[in-house]
Design a protein that fits this description.
Shape: globular
Distance between the termini: 46 Å
Largest sheet: 5 strands, mixed
Strand content: 15-25%
Helix content: 40-55%
Strand order of the largest sheet: 2-1-3-4-5
Structural class: alpha/beta
């Protein structure tokens, strides 16, 4: 499936579901990041950051969604899957995306300090490269949610 086959309506639903996961993370006092994975235009996995809850530094929304999708599809290769996330994936998550062979990644907020996914893809050392799309202010302001979270933490 090519990314162009994902309708704007399906993208909106996916981003809405990812943002809802981010809100749940915010309410749980976790960094507010949420992710969903689409397969055949259906959400097959969704999760949020659960680092504190699980006492696991790898329990990022993207990693947990990738694990759930792989389990659901009974395949470690998520070739025809598309990841929608509220924040540009970190280095660890970018590596998992590449290794899982996810077809495309859509994100709402840039990681300005360390744009890991975009950086890793520029290295050209991999057998697989997902398409990457940044949707600034697409429905929800994920960057504002993140700013509010960290402002609250600093008080």
């Amino acid at each position: 499936m090519f990314t162009t086959e994902i309708s704007e309506n399906v993208k909106k639903k996916a981003f809405h579901a990812a943002f809802n996961q981010a809100l749940k993370a915010y309410d749980a006092d976790e960094v507010p990041v949420g992710s969903v994975i689409l397969y055949n235009n259906q959400i097959i996995a969704r999760n949020r950051n659960r680092i504190i809850e699980k006492r696991d530094p790898t329990a990022h929304a993207e990693i947990l969604a990738i694990k759930a999708a792989a389990k659901k599809l009974k395949n470690e290769r998520l070739i025809d899957c598309h990841l929608f996330t509220t924040l540009e994936p970190c280095t660890m998550c970018a590596g998992a995306i590449i290794l899982a062979r996810i077809s495309s990644v859509f994100f709402l907020a840039e990681e300005a300090r360390l744009p890991a996914l975009r950086y890793l893809l520029k290295m050209k050392n991999y057998n697989h490269y997902p398409e990457v799309y940044f949707y600034r202010d697409f429905m929800h302001d994920s960057s504002e949610l993140l700013k509010n979270f960290f402002k609250k933490k600093r008080k």
